[in-house]
Amino acid sequence: MTEEPIDFNSVLSLCQNQTRRIVLAVLTEEHRSLTLNDLTKTVLTYNHQTTSTEASEDAMTKVRLSLHHVHLPKLASGGLITYDPERQFVEPTELLDQMQPTLSTILDADPSLDAPMER
Known about the structure:
Residues 14-91 form the DUF7344 domain. By secondary structure, the protein is mainly alpha-helical. It has a single domain (6-111), classed as Arc Repressor Mutant, subunit A. The chain has helices spanning 8-14, 18-30, 36-47, 57-77, 94-98, 100-108; strands at 34-35, 81-84, 89-92. It is globular and about 40 Å long.
């Protein structure tokens, strides 16, 4: 079953937020499912320029909650991911693969996604 591609404006809307761009960039790069914990660490690395071991518990909690309650549900409603909140598991969808050329153009334009914090 092939999913219907979403329109360009919807993709732009989903990519307005840097956290969602980070999630989409990681999922398209990794080509695999990730946990909420994996994504939390990745967002901290890119968005907050800190590693999960150096981040405060408060920063970790804020990122995790924003992913869980806002960003992952929004990406799931757009059809780009499936998110199982109970298992805290995120999977890329076939639609994400189909939208790869459009997403690449948008994600490539974000200089903050070029280099995460040095480890």
